[in-house]
Amino acid sequence: MYTYQFRLIVVGDSTVGKSSLLRYFCDGKFCDDSDPTVGVDFYARITEIRPGIRVKLQIWDTAGQERFRSITRSYYRNSVGALLLYDITNFDSFEHVSEWLSEAKKQIEPNNAVFMLVGTKQDKEHLREVPTETAQQFADYHNLLFLETSSKTGDNVEKAFAELAVRIYDQLEEGKFRIEEGWDGIKNGYSMKASTNGVNRKGPSINLIDASNESDSSTDSKPKKGCC
Ligand SMILES: Nc1nc2c(ncn2[C@@H]2O[C@H](COP(=O)(O)OP(=O)(O)O)[C@@H](O)[C@H]2O)c(=O)[nH]1
Ligand SMILES: [Mg+2]
What is an example of a GO molecular function annotated in this UniProt entry (predicted)? Predict the structure, then answer.
């Protein structure tokens, strides 16, 4: 059971660690020999962001398309949150974040979205090229959430998605987003409270295929396709 579904997108240069971050968040594992050709369309996980508020995060991986900077427009348009990734050991990948940000904003408009800057591979401190303060300043200037993560140790992985989801939820409560037919950024989900006699009565936009495919446990998740 979940109250809402938020759809997110993860972008950034290839090899910054997008697939690894999603795999860690959804499967709890890290693959050193990550194969860029293993394309997974989306990952999903249900997480409790506030007591009693369970949100299903459906997260699109760009699965190779980022090589050509040709992310399908509907991926952006139907996202309510975007994670902009760079690798802390690769300054070029950080410099490209501004291009990823402007592309994402351009494609998402006229809709709104919450953006989060994520510096990956935090465990490789000895190879760091991007100072934390530099990234923090960029994030402050552009009004982005910001964290550094490691998909190897798991540091801040959970926190990154939790902070993004909470910010989206708060903005939804403040009326900054509207749940609409034809926009998949936020959908009503199944809710215990909405069910009186065991029959789900929540809104019309429930994705039955998703619900039948995926577990309801907050620690459980299943990517659409496997990895490793
Ligand atoms: N040490 C370390 N390696 C990582 C981390 N995240 C990704 N990698 C490695 O970086 C490479 C590219 O990762 P991948 O997730 O495929 O990047 P993508 O192209 O952005 O999806 C792989 O060899 C991963 O094992 C991390 O947090 N720490
Ligand atoms: Mg990838």
Answer: GTPase activity
Indicate whether 213 belongs to any domain: no
Pocket test for ligand 1, best of 90, 151, 153, 227 (most atoms within 8 A of CB): 151
Tell me, yes or no, whether 49 lies in a domain.
yes
Q: Which of 20, 59, 89, 149 to mutate to test the pocket of ligand 1 (most atoms within 8 A of CB)?
A: 20
Could you tell me if residue 76 is inside a domain?
yes
Domain boundaries, position 9: 4-207
Note whether residue 221 is domain-resident.
no
Query: Between helices 132-142 and 97-108, what is the axis angle to 10°?
Result: 20
* Percent share of the chain, pLDDT over 90: 63
* Number of folded domains that form the chain: 1
Give the distance between the most distant pair of CA atoms in the chain.
58
pLDDT at 115: 98
Range scoring the smallest mean pLDDT among 1-15, 35-49, 50-64, 108-122: 35-49
Is the pLDDT assigned to residue 212 strictly greater than 90? no
**Is 168 strand, coil or helix?**
helix
Q: Is the overall model pTM greater than 0.90, yes or no?
A: no
